[in-house]
Amino acid sequence: MAALATVSAARVSSASHWRNAARLLQSQRRRISDVASSTDFQSLSAKAGGPPVLVFFTATWCQPCREVAPHLRELSRRLEGPHLRIARIDVQETPDLAREQGVEAVPQFLVLRDGQVVERLAGNGPEAITEVAERHAASFAEMLKKSK
C-alpha cells in the first residue's frame, strides 16, 4: 500500500512539474521587447502581414510610465503572442527614434500594422490601453481566421 502511495505521489509531482514548466515556457515567450535602436524598431515594425505592435514610449524619470508599466506587463502576459506584439522604447536611450516617431511626451503609445502607425495614444490610463490592445489583437486574429 505504501508503494502505491509513493507511485501516486510521484505521478502527481511529475504532472505538477510539467504544468509548471509549461507555464514558465509560456511566460518566457510572452514578454515585452525592448527596442534599443532604429534598426531594432524597423525590424520589429516592418514585418508585413505580422501581428500589430503596441509600442510603449517611456523614460525612467516618468512617474506615469512607471505606474502603467505593471499593467503593460499584465497585458503582455495575457495578449502577446501570434496576434499582438508589445515593444518598449526608452526615449532617453533612443531620442532620435522618439523624434522620428513624433513623440513629444511620455508615456505615449503607437499601434503599428505593416510598419504604419494606425493608432496613437498619449497620456491614457490602463483601461484605454487595454481596449486598444484587445481590439487590435482581436482584429488581427479575425483577419487570420478569414484568410484560412
Question: Would you mind describing this structure in some detail?
Answer:
This protein has helices at about 1-30, 40-45, 65-80, 95-100, 125-145, and strands at about 35, 55-60, 85-90, 110-115, 115-120. The model is unreliable at about 5-10 and about 20-30 (pLDDT under 50). It is α/β, with parallel strands linked by helices and about 150 residues long. The chain has a 5-stranded mixed sheet, sandwiched between helices. Helix 3 (about 65-80) packs parallel to helix 5 (about 125-145). The protein is built from 5 helices and 5 strands. The longest helix has 28 residues, at about 1-30. The protein has 2 domains: about 1-30; about 30-145, Glutaredoxin, CATH 3.40.30.10. Helix 3 links the parallel strand 2 and strand 3 (about 85-90). Keywords: Disulfide bond.
- Given as residue ranges, the uncertain stretches (5+ residues, pLDDT < 50) are 4-12, 21-29
Number of E strands: 5
Q: Could you report the average pLDDT, rounded to the nearest whole number?
A: 83
Task: Determine the number of helices (DSSP H or I, runs of at least 4 residues).
Answer: 5
InterPro entries: Thioredoxin-like_sf, Thioredoxin_domain
Protein name: Thioredoxin domain-containing protein
Keywords: Disulfide bond
Organism: Polarella glacialis
